[in-house]
Amino acid sequence: MNRKVLVLTSDEELLKKVTLALGDLYLCQQIESSASVADEPSSDSARAVFVHLCPQVLGDSSPRRFLSELQDSIKQAPLIGLVAEDCPSQLRRLVEGTLDSLVPASFEGPELLALLQRLPDLDADLEEFWRGTPHRELHGQTRSFVTFTPSLFPLIDDLQVAARHDVTALLIGETGSGKTFTARLIHELSDRRDERFCTVACGALPPDLIESELFGYVKGAFTGADRDKEGKFAAAGSGTLLLDEIDVLPPEQQAKLLRVIETGEYEPVGSNETQHSKARLIVASNMELEELVRTGTFRTDLYYRLNILNLRLMPLRNRPWDIEYLARKFALEHSRSHGIRLRDIEPAFLDALQLYDWPGNVREMENVVRRAVLYSQRGVLGVRDLPSNLRAVLDQRLAKEPTVVEDVRPVESTGVDVLNPLGTGGLQPATTFGDGIDLSLSAATNATTLSSEVRTLEAHLDGFERLVIADSLSRNRHSRKDTAAELGISRVTLYNKMKKFGLLG
C-alpha cells in the first residue's frame, strides 16, 4: 500500500490535523502552492492529494485556472478537497463532481481516515491478485510473466530452463499470444541479458530478401548493394536473435539456418568468407511445424533440431483466470503512459472481457484496454468504453440469461429469510439459528417433494452462502472491495463465488 499523501495548504494547523487523523498509517507531506505540485516528483504516485479549498490557496489565480492547473499537475493520485467555510462559491461549484471527494475542513479524525481507506486503489487491487489466488510468476529486467492458470504453471519452469541453457528454443502459439514478449523475457533472464535482442519478422520479408536480412551482404552482391551491410546474426552479436514466423522460410534458407544452428557458420550474400555467429537463437511460429513436416514444406532435420525446447503458449480464451489480472495491469500501464487519471474499473467492464473469445489473444486485449483508457470518463473504466463488438457479446449473453425474481417475503421471526434449499417456490418461514439466520425447511414441504428434490449438504450451504454474499453486496452498494473486506475473503474469491451464484449481473 502506498503510504504517502500530499497536503496542499498553507495552514499549519490544518496540516497538523490531517497528520494526526491519519496517524502512523500514512506519511503526510505539505505543498504550499498549486504551482509547486508539478515539481513534486511523488505527486502522481501518492495515495491521495488533499487540497485545502480556501482563498489563501487560490492566491491570485481564478478558481477555474487553479482547478485546471491542479488537474494538469495531478494525473493519477485521487484529489480530495478540504472545504473551508470561506471557500469561494465559484470554486465550490467547480470542484463538485470534479474532485474524487469533498470533506469539510472541520472534519473529524476518523472520518478522514475512513475516506482514504475507501478510495479505490488499482495498484492494491492488482497486488491482491498476487496474494489471494495460487499463481506462478517470473520476472525479467523490464517484463514479468504472471499466470493464475494452473495448466500454465509448468511453462514457468520451462522458461527458466530455456533461460539457463544456451540452446535454441521453439515458441509455438497463436498470433498475439505473446511469443515476442516471451522471447524477450527468456533473454532478460539469461546470461546474455546485457547484450542485444534482435527480431526478424520472417513473414514480413519477401523470400528473396530473407537471406540478406539474416546473413547480410557485401558490396556488389546484387544491383543496389553499394556497400557492405551486416545481417541480423552479426547485429545480434553475443545477444539473442528471435526469428518470428519461422514456418515461411524457403527450403534453401531452412538449410542455411540449420547450418548456423549446428556450426554457427554462415556467409554473407556475395561473399566467400565464412563468419561465425555467437548469438543465441529463439524461433517462433503460429503454426504446428510437425504438420508442415508431414506435408514436406518444412525440413525434418531442422524441425528436430529446433524441437529441443518446445514452449507452447496458451491462447487467452483458455486462460480465463488471467483475464482480470491482465486487464488491470494494462489499465494501470496505459493510464500512466497517457497521463490519464484512473480511479476505478466497473465490474461489468471486467465481466465483458471475461465473456469475449479474444481471437487476437493478449495483443488484442491490450489494445482494447488501451482504447478504453483513452475513452474513459472521470477516471472510471466502464462497458461504454469498450468497442462495439465486446459490448454486443455482453448484451447477447445477458439477453440469453433469464431474469430471476426471488420471492423475498417477510416472516414474523426476527431471523433473516433464506432461499428454500429444496426449491419449493420462494422463501418460507423458519426457525432461527445462530445470529437469527433461518435455516430450517418449511413445514409445508411434503414427503414427495423431499424425495424428489432433496439436495446435498453442499447445496444447502450454497444457498446460505449466496444469501450472505448478496446481503453484504447490497449493504456495501455492490462494492466488491468493501464486500470482500467485510466477509474476510479476497476479491478474487468473492468474484468466483459471485460467478458461481449468478450475482454478477
Structure, described:
The chain is an alpha/beta fold and 505 residues long. It has 21 helices and 18 strands. Helix 1 packs across helix 5, helix 6 packs antiparallel against helix 14 and helix 7 packs across helix 8. The longest helix is centred in the last third of the chain and has 19 residues.
Number of strands: 18
- Give the mean pLDDT: 82
* Cα gyration radius (Å): 30 Å
Total DSSP helices: 21
Question: Layout of SSEs?
Answer:
Blueprint: E1 4-8, H1 12-22, E2 27-31, E3 48-53, H2 55-58, H3 63-73, E4 79-83, H4 89-95, E5 101-104, H5 109-118, H6 122-132, E6 136-139, E7 144-147, H7 153-164, E8 169-172, H8 179-189, E9 197-201, H9 207-215, H10 232-236, E10 240-244, H11 251-263, E11 265-266, E12 275-276, E13 280-285, H12 289-295, H13 300-306, E14 309-312, H14 320-337, E15 344-345, H15 347-355, H16 361-375, E16 380-381, H17 388-400, E17 432-433, E18 437-438, H18 447-453, H19 457-475, H20 480-487, H21 491-500
Parallel strand pairs: 1-2, 1-3, 3-4, 4-5, 8-13, 8-14, 9-10, 10-13, 15-16
Antiparallel strand pairs: 6-7, 11-12, 17-18
Helix pairs in contact: 1-5, 6-14, 7-8, 14-16, 15-17, 19-20, 20-21
Concise synopsis of the structure shown:
The protein has about 500 residues and is α/β, with parallel strands linked by helices.
